[in-house]
Amino acid sequence: MDMETVIRGIPLFHDKDVSCEPLNGGLSNETYKLTCEGKAYVLRVFGRQADYLALTRGSEIELIRAFHREIHSPAVLYADPGETFAVLEYIEGRMANGDDLLDDERSRRIVTRLKEIHQSVDIAAVSARPCSPYQLVERYLSGADRLHVKRPHGLSPLLTKMEQIAYRRSFDKTHGQRFCHNDYYLFNLIWTLDGADLVVVDWELSGVGDVFFDLASIPFTNRFTPEQEKQWLHAYFGYYEEEQYAILQDMKYMNMLRECAWGLLHSGMTHNQVNHDFNYYQHAERVIERLQQGYNAF
């Protein structure tokens, strides 16, 4: 996609000088910082991932708009009618990092923001976006199959365990069917410059899913100790039970398995992206190796 042509076609920038530079990150989509008349914007060019996940870009844009009203997420300034890109508010600030998890107040705010997401959207309003951890894995793998990606050796037994987890979680109607972000990692959280607000970005995978899947995302990528995980659960629920800890371990496993399936799909998709260089298939193989070794985190 020619960025100059895209930018010229955006009403916000008609007959104006616009500078464009790639932003780091975005392994599923491409993101650019646009600057026009001294003001910054984000141009998000959608990848093909959503085509395989039964999640429309139109519904994603509507969710971003809803969360901009309810909790701070970037405003949608322009959405391409063809659903190929969107212009979003540029948030001046810094990405959340591991140091935030060591600060009691900032860690509490990260958990609180997640809880607000789970409580702020009526499931009836988003029931057209079912997106459980199991559906994510199945859709990624189905897409990879369609793209003739060879499934790595050792994947089948891991999927059998997924079915067992899905069965156990099917009885939890309180936390197993709630609106979830499904990509709640530190790199999708931005502190505003004054530290007063925590902005959540990248709602592509959001939908009705499992609260514990969201809860497991940060612990599994930041190598929490068992004690840290128990404190994390207590911060969210206001109390701690051993059953919560067991469910969190299952959802860390599901986060790992999602990473594997995600890598397989993207290894089969044609990429010509400017802001990363990543071997998706090797990533999937590494995840399988870790799971076979009994680990549910990187």
TrEMBL record:
<dbReference type="Pfam" id="PF01636">
    <property type="entry name" value="APH"/>
</dbReference>
<dbReference type="GO" id="GO:0004305">
    <property type="term" value="F:ethanolamine kinase activity"/>
</dbReference>
<keyword id="KW-0808">Transferase</keyword>
<dbReference type="InterPro" id="IPR002575">
    <property type="entry name" value="Aminoglycoside_PTrfase"/>
</dbReference>
<dbReference type="GO" id="GO:0006646">
    <property type="term" value="P:phosphatidylethanolamine biosynthetic process"/>
</dbReference>
<keyword id="KW-0418">Kinase</keyword>
<dbReference type="InterPro" id="IPR011009">
    <property type="entry name" value="Kinase-like_dom_sf"/>
</dbReference>
<dbReference type="GO" id="GO:0005737">
    <property type="term" value="C:cytoplasm"/>
</dbReference>
<protein>
    <submittedName>
        <fullName>Thiamine kinase-like enzyme</fullName>
    </submittedName>
</protein>
<feature type="domain" description="Aminoglycoside phosphotransferase">
    <location>
        <begin position="20"/>
        <end position="241"/>
    </location>
</feature>
